[in-house]
Amino acid sequence: PRRVVTGLQPTGELHLGNYFGALRRCVQLQEQGEDVMVFIADLHSFTGRQEAGERQSRTLQAAAAVLAAGLQPERAVLFVQSAVARHAELCWLLACLATHARLAHLPQYKEKAATMKEVPVGLLLYPVLQAADILVYRGTHVPVGADQAQHLQVAAQLVRTFHHRYGRAFPTPRALLPDDGSDRIRSLRDPSKKMSKSDPDPKSRILLTDSDDVIRLKIRKAVTDCNPQVTFDPEGRAGVSNLVRLHCLARGLVPEEALCEAEGLTSAQYKEVVARALCECVAPVRARLCELAARPRLLHEVLRHGAARARRRADEVYERVAELTGLPPRL
Ligand code: ATP
Ligand code: MG
């Protein structure tokens, strides 16, 4: 059976990259009748620094964003990663199968580690915990941004190694890659980078809580190039192409249709069109997010229910793992 699993870190307010690249796709998969599990990856957020209170409030806010995007807690499972201890338990077993050399070679690790004086071991283990997040539910399909493709290869490798060493316990998880570019939304300030929560420049991303005015301002300030024409060429003209992409995702268009609407407009004029489309797309999500943020008890209740379901599923898988590895059964 297919099972979709994906996570979001509580490292900041969610942006359009998270929305188009992860949240909205999960909701679409839910609508298609897939078995969808979404978790707030609070354990992952420990690879960076955060105050306890901040972690807590962002966790709740991320959960609210998932629901605001349309995930239905009766149909899909929404929970907080740390509420299911099996993630960390399986992570240890997998860490003992992963090699230091392989992990230390991953570009994301190298990039982050290069900026640090003291590199925490957790940063190295990040993809291993990610593999555990998926495998602990026997996840088969993972709708993530393109930035996570290499980490999924690590997960696939760990599945092979585990099978070799102990026997079959997990299907090989696969990245679900969309063909609309929603998995690779670029920064508005530096289109060579992806849009990120952790980017120090707040104008680099549009948040789901941004007002129409703020959205318009950020799009107006979006970096393009000196060519005022609107064309779609993600490699050669990343900036303006990112705007075309956002326009398409907001309105459900293909790039040719978006370019039609841009006909006769300079890129500065086209930005107004894109901003309008994004405002319309974000408004209902923002409104629901605002409502939900005011209902922490409801959110806690949803997360508690989700964690109970997730724990049951993880326990089932772990039983098989225990049997294969010689750990005592604990069901
Ligand atoms: P951080 O900078 O803290 O890593 P992030 O913006 O990368 O934050 P994550 O919580 O790491 O967000 O990722 C959540 C999900 O959103 C993942 O599935 C990730 O692949 C996806 N995602 C993140 N950025 C983008 C983007 N620019 N375009 C498409 N998907 C994205
Ligand atoms: Mg990230």
From TrEMBL:
Nucleus is among the record's keywords: no
GO terms assigned for molecular function: ATP binding; tryptophan-tRNA ligase activity
Keyword Nucleotide-binding: yes
Region Disordered, annotated ranges: 178-204
Annotated localization: Mitochondrion
Bias type Basic and acidic residues, positions: 181-204
A GO term from the CC aspect: mitochondrial matrix
Keywords: Aminoacyl-tRNA synthetase, ATP-binding, Ligase, Nucleotide-binding, Protein biosynthesis
Entries under SUPFAM superfamilies matching the protein: Nucleotidylyl transferase
Span of the signal peptide: none
Protein name: tryptophan--tRNA ligase
